[in-house]
User: Fold this.
Amino acid sequence: MTDIEKSGNGRRLKGALVGYGFIGARGHVPAYLQRHDVDIVAVADVCAARRDAVRSLLPRARVFDSVDALFSSGIDLDFIDIATPPSEHATIAHRAMDGGLHVLCEKPLTTSVHDARALIDKARATKRVLHPCHNYKFAPVVASIGDIVASGRIGQVRSVTLDTFRPTHAKGVAEWNPDWRRHRRWSGGGIAMDHGSHSLYLAFHWLNAWPTTVTAKVVNQEPERWDTEDTLSAVLTFPENRVARVHLTWTAGLRAVVYSVQGDHGAIIARDDDIEVVTAPGGRASAQAGAKWEIEHSTVSSDWMDASHARWFNAMFDGFLSAIEHGDYAGMDALDAYHCIDVIGTAYASASDGCREKPLSRSDPSVGREPLPQHRDGSRQADPVVAA
Assistant:
């Protein structure tokens, strides 16, 4: 066990940030500067202008022009924070864990389910933490939804809908390929790769399960210009005949998220910071018999319009530290990230096959590898029958 895995020693972690683009500059570094338990002692970026920009904010950090230069420098580190385009995530994470470093990684964890599985295997083999930046869980309004679900007020959750509206794709920094999200070579896909993880891991959390099938449609409004989709609509089937519908688009006329969680005794509807909770004290049957629904409105300030989501970063980073302290090398967040990539890749396959329902892959419990659980509670229930 390393020093940072022993609680209460007070030592500051030493981290390196790989990729000083928009999210690194606007989300990660400002959050790190608020902390007293971590120092970013190194930054690597391929763009000279971005390297110049970070020097003014982190004057004591060593700055490198490549990941190769960083790893060959011999600098003393505890973890790597990967904030590059997704096409680079797996390679950098493998090198970091091979070098004895814990890994914090922006979503999506990888661009293929094979690579995601390999990273989980590597985390377990090297006993290094693999932790994705699933920061939407820490938006105050999302936390409030989770509290309501956990309280049992709306009963057993049966279905969820998650809509993400954006007027255009998120732009990268002007100094380096601001439209990289529309190029598969860098992104691995369009809005499903960029935003899909957020909707999916929230669905997994609220339904407390991983899905078994997916049916999807993708659209690219400008195929002559981009090779990635700008819209995805998908329906996911979960155990016990529960469902989630996910809609993501870069072609909306507004920026908003709209979530709903429906249960046996009511529902939650959230649009950005505004929450409406509708409950029937005796359940739906009593409401249908004439009992009145109870409606409660509230507003939970969450800074949805701030695309950096810096406010949510520190709570997410605390989870990373907890995983290090407890030796949770491939914990629930990492498993959620694996299932996010499984869903996204299978959604693409469904869309390319006339929107046919597709079963989600199962882990390969081959010799020497610990199988992934099929359900978030760790159980291994029999798979449902899936239409061919």
Remarks:
- The chain has two domains: 3-136+309-331, 137-299.
- Confidence is low (pLDDT under 50) at residues 364-369, 381-388.
